[in-house]
Amino acid sequence: QVQLQESGPGLVKPSETLSLTCAVSGYSISSGYFWGWIRQPPGKGLEWIASIYHTGNTYYNPSLKSRVTMSVDTSKNQFSLKLSSVTAADTAVYWCARGNVKFEYWGQGTLVTVSS
Amino acid sequence: EIVLTQSPGTLSLSPGERATLSCRASQSVSSSYLAWYQQKPGQTPRLLISGASSRATGIPDRFSGSGSGTDFTLTISRLEPEDFAVYYCQQYGTSQFTFGQGTKLEIK
Predict the structure, then answer these.
(1) Burial tier of B25 (Cβ tally within 10 Å: 0-12, 13-18, 19+)
(2) Residues of chain B whose C-beta is under 8 A from some C-beta in A?
(3) Alpha carbons within 13 A on the beta-carbon side of A37
(4) CA dihedral over B81, B85, B89, B95, signed as positive or negative
(5) pLDDT tens for residues B68-107?
């Protein structure tokens, strides 16, 4: 069974970089699929952030593209997200998920708060 | 960027009733690339429907999806108490994903 688990700081200061990692078990990232990040600010809807293929090909949400970097580490079977110059508007629950055209498997989510 | 608009914003119904949720796209979406999710408070979204009409594994058959082009519908034939939640549509196209803003299905 495919399982995903997010990890990273729950509190980030304004203007700093948010860094999250998603560890995948039950499936080898190298075998295929796109792997993505989705977030949800408190009380709001879902927003796709970015996706990456095991080869390193990345797709970014145009509204976040200038601040987002995704990477993949197939040796550790994990992928990562970096979001720079964060503000309070980046406070959200962040999920990692597997999906080419739909998100079938999700992590449990991690709340990241941007505050000084 | 394709914008998905869901209606209504809130739908108030009683258990046993039929729910019809709409998702309209700003431009044509391939049916293969339209999905629906259910999210309960404090929980992770759960995939219900993909390819506009195919139920995901373990999803009861009271959930059905339909539509094509720019208009898609999620129907819940007879509401169970556990169906009251927020529902999102999502599309994939040209290496981009977008979600609708959600429809809250609440108990009347």
Answers:
(1) buried
(2) 1, 32-33, 35, 37, 39, 44-45, 47, 50, 56, 88, 90, 92, 95-102
(3) 33
(4) negative
(5) 999 999 999 999 999 999 999 999 988 899 999 999 999 9
